[in-house]
Design goal:
Largest sheet: 6 strands, mixed
Shape: globular
Number of helices: 9
Number of strands: 6
Low-confidence stretches: none
Strand order of the largest sheet: 3-2-1-4-6-5
Radius of gyration: 18 Å
Mean pLDDT: 91
Order of helices and strands: HEHEHEHHEHEEHHH
CATH class: Alpha Beta
Structural class: alpha/beta
CATH architecture: 3-Layer(aba) Sandwich
CATH superfamily: HUPs
């Protein structure tokens, strides 16, 4: 608890939660847990925070089993039970659908879309008014560039986003935390994270954007931070938009 970097990561999450009003007294928060370092770190931090803040909120860890051959569900079940965190494992055949021969061009999009639809459904079924995802600062930066390069638009993930006419709120409490800090936390805490079992992982456009940012950082270490800060330093008078 006393290590500086641990205090920093908790402080950055707290800063995001307070700045955007992510969690309030009485909230029931579904935490999407893929089994990667990001989602397990998020669940751990939110669980720890619930024990020390003066408000009460409930957590429900949800893992959507995509159907790849792995022992992910068993590993996560052990973790949830050891931490005494309520959980639900949803078994699906999303993997077969996403990686089928008719969907070779864009398996990642379909997989993500189907998994997210299932999570929205489960949040409604379990009476959760908030959904927390483990997207971090690097994800937000990469998504901005992905949308510019491949979708011809300037947009990215939001730290807080209301959905379904305000009935559901999507939150990203790790929005201010860099991926390398999350990785350190997960390793130091011995979190049982594991790589994605998808055969298409490592071949995505996101990976190429991540590599591009890393290359640019070799020339200027401020590149990533500057991209992130630019999202709150927009000069509308210098953009091509219809007034």
């Amino acid at each position: 608890m006393g290590k500086y970097w641990e205090k920093e990561i908790r402080g950055l999450m707290g800063k995001a939660i307070h700045r955007y009003g992510m969690i309030h007294d009485g909230d029931r928060v579904l935490v999407g847990v893929s089994g990667g370092k990001d989602s397990l770190t998020l669940l751990t931090l939110l669980s720890e925070r619930a024990k020390r803040v003066p408000i009460h909120y409930e957590l429900l860890a949800v893992h959507v089993d995509l159907g790849f051959e792995s022992n992910a569900a068993e590993l996560l079940t052990e973790f949830f039970e050891a931490k005494k965190i309520p959980y639900h494992i949803e078994h699906t055949r999303i993997a077969a659908l996403a990686t089928g021969p008719e969907n070779r061009e864009n398996p990642c999009f379909l997989c993500s879309w189907e998994r997210r639809k299932r999570i929205f459904y489960l949040a409604q079924q379990f009476g959760c008014n908030k959904i927390a995802f483990g997207h971090h600062k690097d994800d937000i930066i990469e998504t901005l560039l992905l949308n510019i390069f491949y979708s011809a638009e300037i947009s990215t993930m939001l730290p807080l986003q209301t959905l379904f006419k305000g009935k559901m709120t999507l939150i990203r409490p790790l929005a201010f935390i860099e991926e390398k800090k999350i990785e350190r936390f997960a390793k130091e805490k011995g979190l049982p994270y594991f790589p994605c079992g998808c055969p298409a992982s490592g071949q995505s456009k996101r990976k190429r954007v991540k590599e591009l940012i890393h290359t640019l950082e070799q020339e200027n270490r401020l590149v990533k931070g500057n991209i992130f800060r630019s999202l709150s330093n927009i000069k509308m008078g210098y953009l091509l938009w219809n007034k």
